[in-house]
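Sequence in, structure out.
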Amino acid sequence: MDLSFIDWVTIAFCSVIMGASKSGLPGLSILAVPLMANVFDTKQSTGLLLGILILGDIFAIIYHRENAKWEYIFRVLPAALCGIVAGFFAMKVVTDEQLKPIIGLIVLAMLGVNYWRMNRENEDKNIPAPLWLSLWLGFLAGVTTMMANAAGPVMIIYLIAMRLPKMEFVGTAAWFFFIVNWIKVPFSINLGIMSWESLKVDFMMLPFILIGAICGYFVLKRIPQKAFTTAAQILAAAAAIKLLF
């Protein structure tokens, strides 16, 4: 891959973001999606980010290896798989020029979902949890993660609806995305957005992913979460809007 200095800086910065998001700052990863899509070909950025996400998932499941509630993962996984398949076929017919605004719209929609969730913070216990909600959110998570690696806010809504305690909430999300991201690999290879060259770049980013994970554990938790998340979402929204034009 012929990468410029700016390309390398962008990938390294997004790797730190992904590491931090996996280690305890959920919602931050949404910033990396439009940043990568603004620098690289849109489909290429999706494949590059997938490898980085999988490496970040490994750190997350090691840290949260005993915190997953598997019944909630199995409840939503079949619908997510259907969503991944739907997203796969959509990406077969969508051109790179068409995908860029689609990713921008997906990111803006997910930011809207996350904003709604944050403003319902004191009402989360009232979110209903019927089976149809699990199926719908699982399918939506599958589509958005396949097309844009942007399913985080959707899963946050689902796990809130399941009323999980904090540690089980994070652990369940970590294991869900570890499984889902591996499921996406053969689809991404078939689409040509993931290759040995992109994997080489991803593995070169391991130190930056680790730095992000450490920052998530020990440094970034000292920053007020709400202020930090708000700033990240504003930056992500600005980058997503740029994808539309």
